[in-house]
Structures are given as C-alpha cells and as structure tokens.
Amino acid sequence: MHHLNHTEQRVLAAIDEAGLLETLARPVSIPSLDGTAAENEAQEVVAELLTAQGMTVDRWEIDLPALSAHPACSWEVPRERGLGVVGSLGADRGGRSLIFNGHVDVVPAGDRRYWRSDPWQATVIDGRVYGRGALDMKGGLCCAIFAARAIAAAGVRLRGRLLIQSVIGEEDGGLGTLATILRGHTADAAIVAEPTELNIAPAQAGAHNFRLTVFGAAAHGCVREEGVSAIEKFIPLHQAILALERTRNERLRLNDPTGLFARYRTPNAICIGIVRAGEWASSEAEQLIAEGRYGIGVGEDPDMARTELVQTIMAAATNDPWLRDHPPQLEWWGGRFDPASTPLDAPIVQTLAMCNQTVRGTPPVFEGMTYGADMRLLSNVAGIPTVLYGPGDVRDAHRPNESVAIDDLLAATRVFALTALRFCGYDEE
C-alpha cells in the first residue's frame, strides 16, 4: 500500500486480523431472526464489543409504538421489544463526523441439508467464513468495529466523531436505523457495510412489498368446471406482471445517465416469492394470495411506480370476464425500501474511493446495488450522504452456504479505518 503516512501505517498495522475472525464467530452463532429474542441478544453482544473497544455506547429500548407512527416506518415481523446500539469514538474538534452502519438481523437458514456446515457456527473453509449472517451483514459490521478498534489501539485522536450504528430490523423494513436516526445519531456522512464486492455503491434501488389476492369459485374436484380456479385466473395476471417488469427495466435503463446499474439485466425486478391457494386437494381453489417485491428505480417517484403495477393488474383483469366481475385486490404491506442515491462527487464517495484504491491497489469500481437497504433512511430521512460498501457478494446471501472471503473482510477493515482517518481528520504526530 502506497501513499500512507506514518499515522495511517500505524493504524492499519494495529488491525487485529485474528481477533476479527474470532469475534465474528460470536454474532454468527446467534440465530438473530427478525422479531426473536435472539435479535436483541445479538445487539447486547455488539454493545459489549463496542464498550470493550473503549467506545462510548448508547444502548436503549426502542419505543416501537411511537416509531410505528413515523411515515417512513415499515416492518413485516411483529416485535415486543427492540434494542438500539450506537458506539462513538472521537469528539467534535473541527473534523467531520462519519457513521458506519450495519444490521444484526438475518433471514432463516432454510433446510440445513443444503449447508456444508452448521449455519449457526462460523466455519472457515478454503479461505472463506461460512454461516448465516457472515456475509449479510455481521461480517461488514465486525469490519467497522475492528477499524474503530485499530484507531483507538494506535492512540490516534480523531477530530470528528466516528459512530458505529448496530441496528435491528433491516431485513423486514429498517426500523432499527430509523429509530437510531430519530434518536439523534446523525453525521456528515455514512457508509452502510452491505456486501458490494468492495465496489463503491452511491445508489440503491428500491423495493416495496405487495400482496395480490385473486378470487375464484369453489367446487368439488369431480365437477371442477362448475367452479372457477383462482390459480388459473392468476396466470394471466402473472404474465402481465412479467411483461411490466421487462417494460419498466427497459425504460429505466434508458433513463439512467449514470450507468451504475449497467451490468444488471433486471435491476428493478418484480419478484413473487410466495403463492398460496386453495384449502383442499380435491376442491377447486376459490382464492389465491401472491406476495412479492416490486422494484423501484433510482429517481422514480415510489407512488407513481406503484400506480403502474395497479393499472397493469386492473388492465389484465378487464380482459377476462370472470376477473372483470371479480376484480383482484392489491395491497402494499411490510417492507418499504425507497430508492436512494448520493452524487459521485460527494466528499464521502470520493474519500472512500481513494482509500479503496490505496488499500487494494486497483481503481475503484462505481456501481449501483439492486437490493433494498438502510441507505435510503440515512439519505432520504436524515439527509446524510450515504454509500454502500462492504465485503462479499450479495449473490451469496439469503441462500444455503452463505459465506464471505477472509481477504475481503480484511480489505474492508483496512478501507474503513483509512476512510475514517481521512474523512474525520486526526491530530498529526
């Protein structure tokens, strides 16, 4: 690594690489699914880790009823309680403040037969750490913690504050980050440590959850022609949704001057992940419920985008006599991830890009991320210029054998440490 002064060299040398992997094993061992007690247990562990690094820690009970009244609040999983945790290093002494944000909640592990190791145990195989959450995103969060630890261990005094936000509820709507913002934990810039393959991501696509109900008419299976199958009536609606997906993505690609989503054929996907229909195998299904996510492009008005789906479904329904008389119902529910972006010339984008190049020795790659993330809350609600950047590839998330390369974890930790130094400023020796 070139272009590092003595202080920067000391900080990077102080990164505890073995300790990083050992520490990551602790949160990975906690099945911190959304809405479970383990979600808050993981927060307690992070609070302990931040305190051990000498950071000032704010740990508080989130007022869930009050939070639910906020227009930007959304969640899918009910909770009885939630914990917020923020660690702070440095002080306001003329420098800029910076947030590292990461979530502790994870999605279910699924069928363990498809895992090569225990999903709730961090297992190192061929230079990668396997386990649910190792990639998405307890790995990135631990990188941020150990970057701050290295700065403290090297005895460097930051001129601006460095905040580490550990949040719950990202996977089902982002309530943890929203609660953290509303508590007053803001800064001049933020980095969300989501997996970006160590590319600089100043743009995040949006996604809103929807539920489509299709009505049929029940009949005994032996005289099924006397009933109406909600499953069959769903088929033309699904075809119309897929056609809309193609049309929308072609249009949004043409209207994207940044080219940040160029490598994705369908950056704003419409995915139906759950379909439930019928109550009895030998009865015609009288109702079908389909649930999915509706991709929304950067720069789109979410309300106008949602209207396009409503109009598409209603137009398809008018072409079928049964659906015309028994119109399907569409509702929006659960997670609501609006799109967000930060200008490429923003100080945090440029600082992160330069630090990434210094550490990794290659020019930075700028790219938009197609998944929903908490960037949109930091950017759209708090007005904080925000970037997504972290170790690993999102393609390895939400599936069996989730994993992240150890080399990526170490590189991200070094980039985080150097970015904090250069963005916040520090006392010269």
Automatic annotation (TrEMBL):
Tell me if Zinc is a UniProt keyword of this record: yes
Q: Name the UniProt key words of this record, in alphabetical order.
A: Cobalt, Zinc
* Cofactor (UniProt): Zn(2+); Co(2+)
Q: Does the keyword Zinc apply?
A: yes
Q: Which residues form the Peptidase M20 dimerisation domain?
A: 204-317
Alphabetized InterPro entries for the sequence: ArgE/DapE, Peptidase_M20, Peptidase_M20_dimer, Peptidase_M20A
What's an example of a GO molecular-function annotation for this chain? hydrolase activity
Q: Which family does it belong to?
A: Belongs to the peptidase M20A family.
User: Sorted alphabetically, which NCBIfam families does this protein's record hold?
Assistant: DapE-ArgE
Q: Output this protein's name.
A: Acetylornithine deacetylase or succinyl-diaminopimelate desuccinylase
> Origin organism of this chain?
Chloroflexus aggregans (strain MD-66 / DSM 9485)
UniProt lineage? Bacteria, Bacillati, Chloroflexota, Chloroflexia, Chloroflexales
